[in-house]
Specification:
This protein is α/β, with parallel strands linked by helices. The chain folds into three domains: 3-138, no CATH class; 144-263, NAD(P)-binding Rossmann-like Domain (Rossmann fold); 270-459, no CATH class. Helix content is 51%, strand content 13%. The protein has helices at 3-33, 42-62, 73-96, 105-138, 153-163, 198-204, 219-229, 270-290, 292-305, 353-361, 368-373, 387-396, 413-417, 424-439, 443-459; strands at 144-149, 170-177, 191-194, 209-212, 235-238, 250-255, 258-263, 311-317, 323-329, 378-380, 409-411. The chain has a seven-stranded mixed β-sheet. Helix 7 links the parallel strand 4 (209-212) and strand 5 (235-238). The chain is flat and about 80 Å long. The two termini are 53 Å apart. 30% of the residues are buried.
């Protein structure tokens, strides 16, 4: 059974238990805590209709329903405890604090009662469903579709350790040979092909997990393999000694006796990603309204600076390689790239006088708030590039493709630290900052980058 089925099951029971918890709390608060008769008023009806929906939304933002089949009991218990605590506190301050009560003790008792009811009524069905889900995953053929990269003795050892454990959750569909001579696993699982066919194998078999079983002498190949595999969805596990060439992107995990490292595809928790998207939309919506005078001023300035359109639309590569048109105020003379794509330099004669000022103050980037509203960009993220230059960068440094796993941004760490790039070499230097950002993404870092961007705009010191 796939994730969607289990998501629907959890959603149904989370909604139901939230409804029962609130109804029970409302009844017990009146009859036990306040020692009065139960009254079915409008507050009860509104609560029954709205509060379960709010709880489900809260769980979603928390990331409970993301990769649900990987949500095992301990993690589910932890998420439920945290959600119940903060959710009850939020309900108390929004709905219960203004209620008239006989004594303040009822406030404390109400919080404890609501938390106890909600947590217990929620966690019991969740753990039962979770146990059924895990039992289903452990059935032959229902585990995570897994392949092993490598067919040597180490690969065979890892396979035997994992498959022999009664609680194994991996369904091995085969292995991919790396050295052209190690076929020890052929007696146990299917040989799927050589690493040259890796992308086809991953797509064709809908692989969910990859175990890279290579010795320390093969570490020079690890980087290339990760670039080809890591798409943000496939779980990747490595031998422990691979840790020395990776920094901040793995966590230790003991897989039934086979000690492996799991590569974390995204360092930013899902709840922060959800808040980041909400911030993107709200801040961009407010910015479009408040910056209207600057838009008008910039439009007039561009119009009088040189003949041509006010806005400049250019194709860029965005999230997951999707092509979109970035919106900027035109800062160059028309037909500045009639000989093909060209990067600008600090003293580029193609830039108008007004355009030079707009670039230093980043005023030319302001229309990109519209790109953010459309979901094509974020406020903070790696700057999007044209396919023409991406092709050149990837030939020198394939890691650049990792940047396309997140929405590109109006500003970025690389933009703040380095500014506009004048050639491919400078693009590579700026890329290092963006890769560091990718491995350290957080709301706090985004806010810090936005703060320094505002300083650059106010001081007109942009490169």
């Amino acid at each position: 059974m796939k994730d969607r089925f289990w998501v629907v099951v959890f959603l149904f029971f989370d909604f139901l238990t939230a409804l029962i918890a609130w109804s029970s709390f409302f009844y017990l608060r009146q009859t036990v805590l306040e020692k009065s008769e139960f009254k079915l008023d409008s507050n009860f009806i509104y609560g029954v209709l709205l509060i379960p929906l709010v709880w489900v939304l809260f769980y979603y933002v928390q990331g409970t329903y993301i990769s649900i089949r990987q949500m095992f009991r301990l993690k589910m218990l932890n998420l439920t405890l945290i959600a119940s605590f903060f959710g009850v506190i939020l309900i108390f301050f929004i709905l219960l604090l203004d209620d008239e009560v006989k004594s303040y003790e009822i406030y404390y008792q109400s919080v404890i009662l609501l938390f106890s009811l909600h947590f217990m009524l929620t966690i019991i069905p969740r753990l039962i469903i979770n146990s059924i889900m895990i039992w289903s995953i452990r059935k032959p053929g229902n585990g995570f579709k897994t392949i092993i990269l490598g067919g040597n003795e180490k690969a065979l050892e890892i396979y035997n350790e994992m498959i022999s454990h009664p609680l194994n959750i991996n369904s091995f569909i085969g292995y991919v040979n790396l050295n052209g001579k190690d076929y020890l696993l052929s007696e146990h699982i299917n040989y799927l092909g050589h690493e040259t066919d890796l992308e086809r194998i991953l797509s064709e078999h809908k692989v969910e997990e990859v175990i890279i079983a290579i010795e320390s002498s093969d570490h020079n190949r690890l980087k290339d393999l990760l670039l080809r595999i890591d798409d943000g969805h496939i779980r990747i596990k490595l031998l422990p000694d691979a840790y020395v060439i990776l920094s901040g992107s793995v966590k230790m995990t003991n897989i039934y006796g086979a000690l492996l490292l799991e590569l974390k595809s995204d360092i930013m928790p899902f709840w922060q990603q959800a808040i980041k998207r909400v911030m993107d939309f709200l801040i961009s919506f407010i910015a479009v309204i408040l910056l209207t005078p600057f838009f008008i001023f910039s439009a007039i300035a561009v119009k009088f600076s040189s003949p041509g359109p006010i806005l400049y639309l250019q194709e860029r590569v965005g999230l997951n390689g999707a092509i979109f048109k970035i919106i900027k105020f035109r800062t160059m003379y028309v037909d500045s790239e009639n000989l093909g794509p060209q990067l600008s330099s600090e003293n580029d004669p193609r830039i108008t006088k007004i355009g030079r000022f707009m670039r230093k103050t980043r005023l030319d980037e302001f229309p990109q708030f519209i790109n953010v509203l459309f979901g094509q960009m974020s406020l903070v993220g790696p700057r999007p590039e044209r396919q023409f230059y991406i092709d050149q960068i990837v030939k020198l440094e394939a890691q650049y493709l990792h940047l396309n796993r997140v929405r590109p941004g109006i500003t970025s760490w690389g933009q703040v630290k380095f500014g506009y790039a004048e050639n491919v070499e400078q693009m590579l230097q700026r890329m290092k900052f963006d890769l560091i950002y990718l491995k350290n993404r957080s709301l706090a870092l985004d806010i810090k980058i936005m703060f320094y961007t505002v300083i650059i705009v106010l001081k007109a010191k942009g490169k």
